[in-house]
Amino acid sequence: MSLVTLENIKKDYITGEIATPALKGISLAIEPGKFISFIGPSGSGKTTLLNLLGGLDRPTSGRVTVAGTEISSLDRRASAKFRGENIGFIFQNFNLIPVLTVYENVEFPLLMVQELPPAERRRRVEEMLEKVGMADQARKYPGQISGGQKQRVAVARALAARPKLVLADEPTANLDHDTAYKVIGLMHAMKKELDTTFIFATHDQKVVGEAEQIYTIEDGLLSAGIK
Amino acid sequence: MKNIFKIAFRNLLRYTRRTLLTSSLIALGVTLVIVFGGVGNSFRSEVIGIITNSNLGHLQVHKKGYIGSMDNLPLDLVIGDKGLEGLRKTLDSHPEVGSYSERIRFGAMISNFASTTNMRLTAVKPERESAVCPDLPGRIKEGEAGPAAFVKPGAIVLPQNIAAGLGFKVGDEVVLVANNKDGSVNGLSFRLSGISENIMGPQGKDGYIHIDDARTLLRIEGEEVTEVAVRLKDFDRLPGAAASIKKELAALAGAGQAAGAEPKPGAQPGRGAKAGLEVHTWEDLSPFSSIAKMVTLLIMVVRLVLVFIVLVSVLNVMMMSVYERIGEIGTMASIGTPPNKILALFLAEGLSLGLLSGLIGGAAGAGLLLLIKALKIKFTFGNMDLVLSPAVALGEIALAIGVVLVISGLASLQPALKASRMEPVEALRHV
Fold it and tell me: Helix, strand, or coil here: A184?
């Protein structure tokens, strides 16, 4: 059974009375445990597609189903709950919460979203920080660590809630070459260990090289998956 | 909840300068409210204390219609023997009444055989008057001032303005000439035994003689009096006690009218037909009650200013906070933080700011009041010398902090709602 199903997804952005189509009818099915990359030029619709997969935005038409739930029809509260339980996000700019320590950033979704008991939260946070190699930096704030370390914390935060799907939008765009490789390697290892599906939107050939399946988006349309 | 407040507090510290500036402004407002309230209440209590403890008492009972003609000090609107008997019974048995003093107030001409002027006099039994107005003997600055005998039979106490105006000295012999209620004139000699300070209010410039002398001078054969001043055991229970005394006097009048019958339902308290007695609190009798109300009003205005300071400051800070953290809100929303928790995070931030500022302001206000109290600042109001002795009222401080908290919560609500309703995809674009 597919983890993600897209059925004839269209998305238009409305500016005044002008509708600009971003996605022009995309259908796709993604199996669990895959490492998938969407590539394409800027403005091709990669981020829009990721936003629809994550339930952050709604399609103009079509259906998005993730883990058996049609997320395109959920209201704001239900959508937030679904994301908290099923989807992890990794952002280009890391998006760590600056007033929280490394430990607290990873703990945040477990505390605020999943409301796990303290002992379980502690166990999971320590486990994830250990896995991403940030256990010794747990008490530092985001402003006190490097970009690569921030992205490792972001990976830990995305995976701490044990999501079925992780969506990563240009996760290596702000990292140097070596660090980018390390972060990709980390995500790959996590995917193997936790059997989580990773979907990337990227320009980065390093990420593309690691993907099990690559889809090209151009002018709002999806080409067949290659590799 | 603890974690939400922890995050809120850290966010406040994140913009230290802005938080300090806003917090200082609110704290200053709280300090102002507490100090102004403390000083205002102290001034009000001090003046009320002087007025009620020196001449008015806490409340007074008169014959119906007396107050309307009080400027003429009428001797035909008196509480007669029968009415006085019932009134004494009522006051003696009333649990709130501490003491009472029967008085005859009248106008007279005073002369030292060389100069003559008009004046007002209050005739009293000194020991009873001292029990109702304990500060009165203390205001007699020259001559005899013992509480039980500040005015003996044959003696007179004059207010400063009359004594100075006519050049009287303690020990001088003076003559009082007065009309009785039938219009006949009588005169009596007195020895000046004391000179009292003037104070504000309707009886602040009265002279005092013994009540027995007044009966002789005015040829009063019975025990009739023009007023009875009452001191309560607890001044703070004045409204309830006054209402209760009015009710009892009304019942007394009703009983007198209907030979023991129950008072009619709906009968106006204090307006009994036959005994016809009225009860007036010091507020009804003294013009200072208007000033006291103005002080209360000013305190309310200062509180209102505080409300606006907090509203504008917290609203401004929280709107800035939301605007600056749109991307962060997008991140929180995208990882699944429910809207109500995003709302709670920003509300907690506003409340923390209010609480912090309120506590600082409360402490500063209490400190300043203690300082003012320690300095014993003296000033003159009217012709009364006052000492500021503000009390640190914990209730007032708690109220000020409570107001700040409530307004902070209300001011944070709109920005917090805005944050909680943001579309994550729109918010993330601001990163």
Answer: helix
